[in-house]
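WARN no homologs supplied; continuing
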Amino acid sequence: MFDTLSENLGSIFDRLTRRGALSEAQVEEALGEIRKALLEADVALPVVRSFIDQVRPLAVGSNVLKSVTPGQQVIKIVNDALIDMLGAPAPLKFDAVPPVVMMMVGLQGSGKTTSTGKLAKFITETEKRKVLMASLDTQRPAAMQQLAVLGEQTGIQTLPIVDGQAPVDIAKRAVQAGKLGGFDVVMLDTAGRTNADGALMAEMAAIEKAAAPTETLLVADSLTGQEAVNIAAQFAARVTLSGILLTRADGDGRGGAALSMRYVTGVPIKFLGVGEAIDKLELFDPQRLANRILGMGDVVGLVEKAAETMDAEKAEKIAARMKKGQFTLDDMAAQLKQMQAMGGMSGVLGMLPSSLLGGGKMKKQLAALNMDERELLRQAAIVSSMTRGERDNPKLMNASRKRRVAGGSGTSVQDVNKVLKMHRQMADMMKKMGKGGLANMMGGLTGSMGGNMGANMEGGSMPQMPSLDPNNLPDLSKLGGDAPADFLKGLGLPNSGPKKK
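OK structure emitted
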Protein backbone atom coordinates (compact mmCIF):
# COMPACT_ATOMS: atom_id res chain seq x y z
CA MET A 1 0.00 0.00 0.00
CA PHE A 2 2.87 2.38 0.74
CA ASP A 3 5.14 1.38 -2.15
CA THR A 4 5.00 4.73 -3.95
CA LEU A 5 5.43 6.77 -0.77
CA SER A 6 8.28 4.53 0.35
CA GLU A 7 9.99 4.86 -3.03
CA ASN A 8 9.66 8.66 -3.05
CA LEU A 9 10.91 9.08 0.50
CA GLY A 10 13.71 6.60 -0.18
CA SER A 11 15.04 8.67 -3.09
CA ILE A 12 14.91 11.83 -0.94
CA PHE A 13 16.86 10.18 1.89
CA ASP A 14 19.37 8.65 -0.52
CA ARG A 15 20.30 12.14 -1.69
CA LEU A 16 20.57 13.38 1.90
CA THR A 17 22.87 10.57 3.04
CA ARG A 18 25.16 10.98 0.02
CA ARG A 19 25.78 14.68 0.70
CA GLY A 20 27.60 14.24 4.00
CA ALA A 21 27.37 17.67 5.65
CA LEU A 22 24.00 19.42 5.22
CA SER A 23 23.08 23.08 5.16
CA GLU A 24 19.82 24.48 6.48
CA ALA A 25 18.76 25.23 2.88
CA GLN A 26 19.31 21.59 1.86
CA VAL A 27 17.22 20.34 4.79
CA GLU A 28 14.45 22.81 3.91
CA GLU A 29 14.55 21.56 0.32
CA ALA A 30 14.23 17.97 1.54
CA LEU A 31 11.30 18.90 3.77
CA GLY A 32 9.56 20.42 0.76
CA GLU A 33 10.03 17.17 -1.15
CA ILE A 34 8.75 15.15 1.83
CA ARG A 35 5.68 17.40 1.93
CA LYS A 36 5.05 16.76 -1.76
CA ALA A 37 5.51 12.99 -1.34
CA LEU A 38 2.95 12.89 1.51
CA LEU A 39 0.41 14.91 -0.47
CA GLU A 40 0.86 12.62 -3.48
CA ALA A 41 0.17 9.67 -1.16
CA ASP A 42 -3.26 11.18 -0.33
CA VAL A 43 -2.32 12.29 3.18
CA ALA A 44 -4.73 15.02 4.30
CA LEU A 45 -3.32 18.56 4.00
CA PRO A 46 -3.79 19.45 7.71
CA VAL A 47 -1.92 16.26 8.63
CA VAL A 48 0.94 17.11 6.27
CA ARG A 49 1.21 20.62 7.70
CA SER A 50 1.27 19.28 11.25
CA PHE A 51 3.87 16.67 10.31
CA ILE A 52 6.25 19.16 8.66
CA ASP A 53 5.81 21.62 11.54
CA GLN A 54 6.84 18.84 13.93
CA VAL A 55 9.87 17.76 11.89
CA ARG A 56 11.26 21.16 10.79
CA PRO A 57 12.60 22.54 14.12
CA LEU A 58 14.31 19.20 14.84
CA ALA A 59 15.68 18.64 11.34
CA VAL A 60 17.28 22.09 10.95
CA GLY A 61 18.65 22.20 14.49
CA SER A 62 22.37 22.41 15.21
CA ASN A 63 22.44 18.84 16.56
CA VAL A 64 21.59 17.60 13.06
CA LEU A 65 23.56 20.02 10.90
CA LYS A 66 26.75 19.49 12.92
CA SER A 67 26.24 15.73 13.25
CA VAL A 68 28.71 13.26 11.75
CA THR A 69 25.77 11.61 9.92
CA PRO A 70 23.20 14.41 9.39
CA GLY A 71 21.31 12.52 6.66
CA GLN A 72 20.62 9.57 8.96
CA GLN A 73 19.68 11.95 11.78
CA VAL A 74 16.99 13.45 9.53
CA ILE A 75 15.73 9.95 8.70
CA LYS A 76 15.44 9.15 12.39
CA ILE A 77 13.53 12.39 13.05
CA VAL A 78 11.10 11.65 10.20
CA ASN A 79 10.71 8.07 11.43
CA ASP A 80 9.89 9.24 14.97
CA ALA A 81 7.38 11.77 13.60
CA LEU A 82 5.70 9.08 11.48
CA ILE A 83 5.33 6.84 14.53
CA ASP A 84 3.87 9.75 16.49
CA MET A 85 1.43 10.49 13.65
CA LEU A 86 0.28 6.86 13.54
CA GLY A 87 -0.13 6.69 17.32
CA ALA A 88 0.73 4.11 19.95
CA PRO A 89 -0.46 0.49 19.63
CA ALA A 90 -3.98 0.17 21.04
CA PRO A 91 -5.10 -3.36 21.99
CA LEU A 92 -8.77 -4.30 22.29
CA LYS A 93 -10.35 -3.79 25.71
CA PHE A 94 -11.76 -6.80 27.54
CA ASP A 95 -12.04 -5.32 31.03
CA ALA A 96 -15.84 -4.84 31.01
CA VAL A 97 -18.27 -7.28 32.61
CA PRO A 98 -18.88 -10.11 30.09
CA PRO A 99 -20.05 -10.13 27.47
CA VAL A 100 -17.87 -7.39 26.02
CA VAL A 101 -19.83 -5.82 23.16
CA MET A 102 -17.96 -4.85 20.00
CA MET A 103 -19.81 -2.86 17.36
CA MET A 104 -18.59 -2.79 13.76
CA VAL A 105 -19.63 0.29 11.75
CA GLY A 106 -18.85 1.60 8.27
CA LEU A 107 -20.19 2.17 4.78
CA GLN A 108 -21.57 -0.53 2.53
CA GLY A 109 -18.80 -2.30 0.62
CA SER A 110 -16.06 -1.49 3.12
CA GLY A 111 -15.73 -5.15 4.13
CA LYS A 112 -17.58 -4.96 7.45
CA THR A 113 -19.05 -8.47 7.50
CA THR A 114 -15.84 -10.19 6.40
CA SER A 115 -13.88 -8.12 8.91
CA THR A 116 -16.31 -9.14 11.65
CA GLY A 117 -15.56 -12.79 10.88
CA LYS A 118 -11.82 -12.15 10.75
CA LEU A 119 -11.80 -10.29 14.05
CA ALA A 120 -13.95 -12.94 15.73
CA LYS A 121 -11.49 -15.61 14.61
CA PHE A 122 -8.57 -13.50 15.82
CA ILE A 123 -10.15 -12.99 19.26
CA THR A 124 -11.03 -16.68 19.54
CA GLU A 125 -7.51 -17.86 18.68
CA THR A 126 -5.30 -15.20 20.27
CA GLU A 127 -7.38 -14.12 23.27
CA LYS A 128 -8.95 -17.56 23.86
CA ARG A 129 -12.40 -16.03 24.34
CA LYS A 130 -15.82 -17.35 23.41
CA VAL A 131 -17.39 -15.13 20.72
CA LEU A 132 -20.95 -14.70 19.47
CA MET A 133 -21.48 -12.88 16.16
CA ALA A 134 -24.76 -11.15 15.29
CA SER A 135 -25.78 -9.52 12.03
CA LEU A 136 -27.83 -6.33 12.35
CA ASP A 137 -27.77 -5.69 8.62
CA THR A 138 -31.40 -5.84 7.50
CA GLN A 139 -30.69 -3.66 4.45
CA ARG A 140 -28.33 -5.69 2.27
CA PRO A 141 -29.74 -8.92 0.78
CA ALA A 142 -28.21 -12.09 2.28
CA ALA A 143 -26.02 -10.09 4.68
CA MET A 144 -27.19 -12.15 7.65
CA GLN A 145 -26.64 -15.39 5.75
CA GLN A 146 -23.12 -14.25 4.83
CA LEU A 147 -22.18 -13.86 8.50
CA ALA A 148 -23.75 -17.25 9.28
CA VAL A 149 -21.57 -18.86 6.60
CA LEU A 150 -18.47 -17.19 8.04
CA GLY A 151 -19.48 -18.56 11.43
CA GLU A 152 -19.67 -22.07 10.02
CA GLN A 153 -16.27 -21.70 8.35
CA THR A 154 -14.56 -20.49 11.53
CA GLY A 155 -16.52 -22.56 14.04
CA ILE A 156 -17.80 -19.38 15.73
CA GLN A 157 -21.43 -19.23 16.82
CA THR A 158 -23.82 -16.73 15.25
CA LEU A 159 -27.11 -15.38 16.55
CA PRO A 160 -30.12 -17.15 14.96
CA ILE A 161 -31.88 -15.04 12.33
CA VAL A 162 -35.39 -13.78 13.15
CA ASP A 163 -37.11 -12.32 10.09
CA GLY A 164 -38.60 -8.85 10.41
CA GLN A 165 -36.72 -7.86 13.56
CA ALA A 166 -35.33 -4.31 13.70
CA PRO A 167 -31.55 -3.72 14.13
CA VAL A 168 -31.89 -2.27 17.65
CA ASP A 169 -33.98 -5.25 18.77
CA ILE A 170 -31.44 -7.66 17.27
CA ALA A 171 -28.69 -5.89 19.21
CA LYS A 172 -30.61 -6.26 22.48
CA ARG A 173 -31.31 -9.94 21.76
CA ALA A 174 -27.63 -10.55 20.95
CA VAL A 175 -26.46 -9.02 24.23
CA GLN A 176 -29.02 -11.07 26.17
CA ALA A 177 -28.00 -14.25 24.32
CA GLY A 178 -24.38 -13.47 25.14
CA LYS A 179 -25.16 -13.24 28.85
CA LEU A 180 -27.27 -16.41 28.94
CA GLY A 181 -24.84 -18.38 26.76
CA GLY A 182 -21.73 -17.53 28.74
CA PHE A 183 -20.04 -15.69 25.87
CA ASP A 184 -17.05 -13.44 26.54
CA VAL A 185 -17.57 -11.24 23.47
CA VAL A 186 -20.60 -10.27 21.38
CA MET A 187 -19.81 -8.78 17.96
CA LEU A 188 -22.46 -6.66 16.25
CA ASP A 189 -22.15 -6.42 12.45
CA THR A 190 -24.19 -3.32 11.64
CA ALA A 191 -25.69 -2.27 8.32
CA GLY A 192 -24.04 0.20 5.98
CA ARG A 193 -25.15 2.63 3.32
CA THR A 194 -23.55 3.87 0.14
CA ASN A 195 -22.93 7.17 1.94
CA ALA A 196 -22.93 8.44 5.51
CA ASP A 197 -26.51 9.75 5.46
CA GLY A 198 -28.67 10.85 8.36
CA ALA A 199 -30.64 7.59 8.49
CA LEU A 200 -27.48 5.50 8.86
CA MET A 201 -26.07 7.74 11.59
CA ALA A 202 -29.35 7.73 13.50
CA GLU A 203 -29.43 3.90 13.38
CA MET A 204 -25.82 3.63 14.59
CA ALA A 205 -26.52 6.01 17.48
CA ALA A 206 -29.64 4.04 18.50
CA ILE A 207 -27.73 0.72 18.45
CA GLU A 208 -24.90 2.24 20.46
CA LYS A 209 -27.38 3.46 23.10
CA ALA A 210 -29.10 0.07 23.30
CA ALA A 211 -25.98 -2.14 23.35
CA ALA A 212 -23.46 0.11 25.15
CA PRO A 213 -20.45 -1.32 23.27
CA THR A 214 -17.00 -1.35 24.87
CA GLU A 215 -15.42 -1.17 21.42
CA THR A 216 -16.86 0.58 18.37
CA LEU A 217 -14.62 -0.09 15.39
CA LEU A 218 -14.92 1.80 12.12
CA VAL A 219 -14.25 -0.48 9.14
CA ALA A 220 -12.83 1.64 6.31
CA ASP A 221 -11.58 0.70 2.85
CA SER A 222 -8.01 2.00 2.51
CA LEU A 223 -8.33 2.10 -1.28
CA THR A 224 -10.89 4.93 -1.10
CA GLY A 225 -8.05 7.26 -0.14
CA GLN A 226 -8.95 10.75 1.03
CA GLU A 227 -12.67 9.95 1.03
CA ALA A 228 -12.09 7.32 3.75
CA VAL A 229 -10.77 10.11 6.00
CA ASN A 230 -13.91 12.19 5.41
CA ILE A 231 -16.13 9.18 6.18
CA ALA A 232 -14.19 8.50 9.38
CA ALA A 233 -14.72 12.09 10.52
CA GLN A 234 -18.49 11.79 9.94
CA PHE A 235 -18.75 8.58 11.97
CA ALA A 236 -16.58 10.00 14.75
CA ALA A 237 -18.99 12.94 15.06
CA ARG A 238 -22.02 10.68 15.69
CA VAL A 239 -20.78 7.58 17.53
CA THR A 240 -18.04 7.01 20.09
CA LEU A 241 -15.35 5.33 18.00
CA SER A 242 -12.65 3.40 19.86
CA GLY A 243 -10.61 2.33 16.88
CA ILE A 244 -10.31 1.77 13.13
CA LEU A 245 -9.93 -1.40 11.07
CA LEU A 246 -8.50 -0.67 7.62
CA THR A 247 -9.39 -3.20 4.94
CA ARG A 248 -7.52 -3.97 1.71
CA ALA A 249 -4.24 -2.73 3.18
CA ASP A 250 -2.53 -5.17 0.80
CA GLY A 251 -3.86 -3.27 -2.21
CA ASP A 252 -2.20 -0.66 -4.37
CA GLY A 253 -3.69 2.36 -2.61
CA ARG A 254 -1.40 5.26 -1.80
CA GLY A 255 -1.63 4.88 1.97
CA GLY A 256 -2.75 8.38 2.85
CA ALA A 257 -5.84 7.15 4.69
CA ALA A 258 -3.78 5.20 7.21
CA LEU A 259 -1.53 8.18 7.86
CA SER A 260 -4.44 10.62 8.23
CA MET A 261 -7.18 8.78 10.13
CA ARG A 262 -5.76 8.93 13.64
CA TYR A 263 -5.15 12.67 13.28
CA VAL A 264 -8.64 13.35 11.92
CA THR A 265 -10.64 11.07 14.25
CA GLY A 266 -8.44 11.07 17.35
CA VAL A 267 -8.79 7.27 17.61
CA PRO A 268 -6.12 4.67 16.80
CA ILE A 269 -5.93 2.24 13.92
CA LYS A 270 -6.12 -1.17 15.58
CA PHE A 271 -6.15 -3.68 12.73
CA LEU A 272 -5.23 -4.03 9.06
CA GLY A 273 -7.01 -6.39 6.68
CA VAL A 274 -4.24 -7.72 4.43
CA GLY A 275 -6.08 -10.18 2.19
CA GLU A 276 -9.38 -11.86 1.39
CA ALA A 277 -8.75 -15.03 3.42
CA ILE A 278 -10.36 -15.25 6.86
CA ASP A 279 -6.98 -15.27 8.62
CA LYS A 280 -5.61 -12.22 6.81
CA LEU A 281 -5.88 -9.76 9.69
CA GLU A 282 -2.93 -8.08 11.40
CA LEU A 283 -2.55 -6.02 14.54
CA PHE A 284 -1.57 -2.48 13.61
CA ASP A 285 1.94 -1.64 14.80
CA PRO A 286 2.90 2.02 14.12
CA GLN A 287 6.63 1.49 14.58
CA ARG A 288 6.82 -1.43 12.19
CA LEU A 289 4.74 0.40 9.61
CA ALA A 290 6.90 3.53 9.86
CA ASN A 291 10.02 1.38 9.43
CA ARG A 292 8.58 -0.22 6.30
CA ILE A 293 7.55 3.14 4.82
CA LEU A 294 11.10 4.43 5.26
CA GLY A 295 12.68 1.29 3.76
CA MET A 296 13.95 -0.07 7.09
CA GLY A 297 11.91 -3.24 6.76
CA ASP A 298 10.09 -5.25 9.39
CA VAL A 299 12.36 -8.13 10.29
CA VAL A 300 10.44 -8.80 13.51
CA GLY A 301 7.23 -9.22 11.52
CA LEU A 302 9.01 -11.44 9.02
CA VAL A 303 10.26 -13.75 11.78
CA GLU A 304 6.79 -13.89 13.34
CA LYS A 305 5.17 -14.69 10.01
CA ALA A 306 7.76 -17.39 9.36
CA ALA A 307 7.04 -18.97 12.74
CA GLU A 308 3.29 -18.99 12.01
CA THR A 309 3.47 -20.53 8.54
CA MET A 310 6.33 -23.00 8.67
CA ASP A 311 6.74 -26.62 9.68
CA ALA A 312 9.81 -26.58 11.92
CA GLU A 313 10.60 -30.31 11.73
CA LYS A 314 10.32 -30.42 7.94
CA ALA A 315 12.38 -27.23 7.63
CA GLU A 316 15.16 -28.68 9.78
CA LYS A 317 15.40 -31.72 7.51
CA ILE A 318 15.54 -29.59 4.37
CA ALA A 319 18.17 -27.31 5.92
CA ALA A 320 20.29 -30.33 6.89
CA ARG A 321 20.17 -31.71 3.33
CA MET A 322 20.97 -28.28 1.89
CA LYS A 323 24.13 -28.07 4.00
CA LYS A 324 25.23 -31.35 2.41
CA GLY A 325 24.51 -29.97 -1.04
CA GLN A 326 21.34 -32.06 -1.41
CA PHE A 327 18.32 -30.25 -2.77
CA THR A 328 15.50 -32.25 -4.36
CA LEU A 329 12.52 -31.13 -6.38
CA ASP A 330 10.34 -31.87 -3.34
CA ASP A 331 12.48 -29.44 -1.33
CA MET A 332 12.05 -26.76 -3.97
CA ALA A 333 8.27 -27.28 -4.11
CA ALA A 334 8.08 -27.05 -0.30
CA GLN A 335 10.03 -23.78 -0.30
CA LEU A 336 7.85 -22.23 -3.00
CA LYS A 337 4.70 -23.23 -1.10
CA GLN A 338 6.01 -21.70 2.11
CA MET A 339 7.04 -18.52 0.35
CA GLN A 340 3.53 -18.19 -1.04
CA ALA A 341 2.06 -18.69 2.46
CA MET A 342 4.09 -15.69 3.59
CA GLY A 343 2.63 -13.44 0.91
CA GLY A 344 4.89 -14.34 -2.00
CA MET A 345 8.21 -12.74 -2.81
CA SER A 346 6.73 -9.24 -2.72
CA GLY A 347 5.44 -9.86 0.80
CA VAL A 348 8.83 -11.02 2.04
CA LEU A 349 10.81 -8.31 0.24
CA GLY A 350 8.50 -5.67 1.69
CA MET A 351 9.70 -6.68 5.16
CA LEU A 352 13.41 -6.54 4.34
CA PRO A 353 15.46 -3.33 4.68
CA SER A 354 16.04 -1.73 1.28
CA SER A 355 19.74 -1.39 2.07
CA LEU A 356 20.10 -5.18 2.20
CA LEU A 357 18.79 -5.42 -1.37
CA GLY A 358 20.77 -2.57 -2.87
CA GLY A 359 17.97 -0.04 -2.56
CA GLY A 360 14.30 0.23 -3.44
CA LYS A 361 14.93 -0.17 -7.17
CA MET A 362 16.36 -3.66 -6.71
CA LYS A 363 13.50 -4.62 -4.39
CA LYS A 364 11.02 -3.46 -7.00
CA GLN A 365 12.72 -5.48 -9.75
CA LEU A 366 12.74 -8.63 -7.64
CA ALA A 367 9.11 -8.19 -6.58
CA ALA A 368 8.12 -7.85 -10.25
CA LEU A 369 9.30 -11.42 -10.76
CA ASN A 370 6.94 -12.75 -8.12
CA MET A 371 4.96 -15.71 -9.37
CA ASP A 372 1.19 -15.70 -9.13
CA GLU A 373 -0.97 -18.42 -7.61
CA ARG A 374 -1.58 -20.11 -10.96
CA GLU A 375 2.12 -20.43 -11.67
CA LEU A 376 2.67 -21.96 -8.26
CA LEU A 377 -0.10 -24.51 -8.86
CA ARG A 378 1.32 -25.31 -12.30
CA GLN A 379 4.77 -25.98 -10.86
CA ALA A 380 3.33 -28.06 -8.03
CA ALA A 381 1.40 -30.16 -10.56
CA ILE A 382 4.58 -30.77 -12.56
CA VAL A 383 6.53 -31.96 -9.52
CA SER A 384 3.61 -34.12 -8.35
CA SER A 385 3.48 -35.86 -11.76
CA MET A 386 7.05 -37.12 -11.35
CA THR A 387 7.98 -40.41 -9.74
CA ARG A 388 9.79 -40.48 -6.41
CA GLY A 389 13.03 -41.37 -8.19
CA GLU A 390 12.66 -38.46 -10.62
CA ARG A 391 12.00 -35.97 -7.83
CA ASP A 392 15.07 -37.18 -5.94
CA ASN A 393 17.25 -37.32 -9.06
CA PRO A 394 16.12 -34.87 -11.78
CA LYS A 395 18.95 -36.10 -14.04
CA LEU A 396 16.68 -39.04 -14.90
CA MET A 397 14.37 -36.65 -16.76
CA ASN A 398 14.94 -37.50 -20.42
CA ALA A 399 12.73 -36.43 -23.32
CA SER A 400 10.16 -39.22 -22.95
CA ARG A 401 9.86 -38.70 -19.19
CA LYS A 402 9.34 -34.96 -19.75
CA ARG A 403 6.53 -35.67 -22.21
CA ARG A 404 4.91 -38.04 -19.72
CA VAL A 405 5.11 -35.47 -16.88
CA ALA A 406 3.80 -32.69 -19.13
CA GLY A 407 0.82 -34.84 -20.12
CA GLY A 408 0.12 -35.88 -16.55
CA SER A 409 0.21 -32.31 -15.23
CA GLY A 410 -1.66 -30.69 -18.11
CA THR A 411 1.35 -28.53 -19.00
CA SER A 412 3.94 -28.41 -21.77
CA VAL A 413 7.46 -29.83 -22.04
CA GLN A 414 8.67 -26.23 -21.99
CA ASP A 415 7.01 -25.73 -18.59
CA VAL A 416 8.69 -28.89 -17.30
CA ASN A 417 12.05 -27.62 -18.54
CA LYS A 418 11.52 -24.31 -16.69
CA VAL A 419 10.92 -26.14 -13.42
CA LEU A 420 13.99 -28.32 -13.93
CA LYS A 421 16.13 -25.28 -14.79
CA MET A 422 14.90 -23.42 -11.71
CA HIS A 423 15.72 -26.42 -9.53
CA ARG A 424 19.17 -26.81 -11.08
CA GLN A 425 20.05 -23.17 -10.43
CA MET A 426 18.80 -23.32 -6.86
CA ALA A 427 20.61 -26.61 -6.21
CA ASP A 428 23.88 -25.19 -7.60
CA MET A 429 23.60 -22.20 -5.30
CA MET A 430 22.91 -24.40 -2.28
CA LYS A 431 26.08 -26.37 -3.00
CA LYS A 432 28.16 -23.20 -3.24
CA MET A 433 26.69 -21.72 -0.10
CA GLY A 434 26.37 -24.98 1.82
CA LYS A 435 28.65 -24.10 4.70
CA GLY A 436 27.72 -20.55 5.61
CA GLY A 437 25.88 -17.28 5.17
CA LEU A 438 23.46 -17.75 2.35
CA ALA A 439 23.04 -21.49 2.82
CA ASN A 440 20.71 -20.70 5.67
CA MET A 441 18.69 -18.26 3.63
CA MET A 442 15.10 -18.23 4.63
CA GLY A 443 15.73 -21.74 5.90
CA GLY A 444 18.12 -20.15 8.40
CA LEU A 445 15.16 -19.18 10.50
CA THR A 446 15.14 -22.80 11.64
CA GLY A 447 17.92 -22.02 14.10
CA SER A 448 15.84 -19.74 16.29
CA MET A 449 12.28 -20.00 15.03
CA GLY A 450 12.19 -23.46 13.48
CA GLY A 451 11.11 -22.12 10.12
CA ASN A 452 12.12 -22.44 6.51
CA MET A 453 11.23 -20.18 3.64
CA GLY A 454 11.93 -20.64 -0.01
CA ALA A 455 12.40 -17.99 -2.63
CA ASN A 456 11.89 -17.98 -6.34
CA MET A 457 12.57 -15.89 -9.37
CA GLU A 458 11.44 -16.56 -12.94
CA GLY A 459 13.74 -19.35 -13.97
CA GLY A 460 16.11 -18.52 -11.12
CA SER A 461 16.36 -18.14 -7.39
CA MET A 462 16.89 -15.83 -4.47
CA PRO A 463 19.60 -16.15 -1.83
CA GLN A 464 18.43 -17.32 1.57
CA MET A 465 17.59 -15.09 4.46
CA PRO A 466 19.83 -14.95 7.52
CA SER A 467 19.26 -16.61 10.88
CA LEU A 468 17.50 -14.24 13.22
CA ASP A 469 17.14 -14.44 16.98
CA PRO A 470 13.84 -12.68 17.84
CA ASN A 471 15.30 -11.72 21.22
CA ASN A 472 18.40 -10.12 19.70
CA LEU A 473 17.31 -8.41 16.51
CA PRO A 474 19.41 -5.74 14.77
CA ASP A 475 18.59 -2.07 15.33
CA LEU A 476 16.99 -1.28 11.99
CA SER A 477 16.68 2.42 12.85
CA LYS A 478 20.41 2.68 12.10
CA LEU A 479 20.02 1.44 8.54
CA GLY A 480 19.59 4.76 6.78
CA GLY A 481 21.84 4.80 3.74
CA ASP A 482 24.67 2.27 3.61
CA ALA A 483 23.99 -0.81 5.71
CA PRO A 484 26.74 -1.27 8.32
CA ALA A 485 29.39 -3.64 7.02
CA ASP A 486 29.51 -5.69 10.21
CA PHE A 487 25.73 -6.18 10.15
CA LEU A 488 25.85 -7.50 6.58
CA LYS A 489 28.90 -9.60 7.29
CA GLY A 490 27.10 -11.27 10.17
CA LEU A 491 24.29 -12.21 7.80
CA GLY A 492 26.65 -13.63 5.21
CA LEU A 493 25.58 -10.93 2.73
CA PRO A 494 27.73 -8.56 0.71
CA ASN A 495 27.48 -4.85 1.42
CA SER A 496 25.06 -3.92 -1.34
CA GLY A 497 24.82 -0.25 -0.46
CA PRO A 498 26.45 2.53 -2.50
CA LYS A 499 30.21 2.13 -2.80
CA LYS A 500 32.25 4.70 -0.97
CA LYS A 501 34.80 6.61 -2.93
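The chain has three domains: 3-86, 100-284, 302-475.
OK
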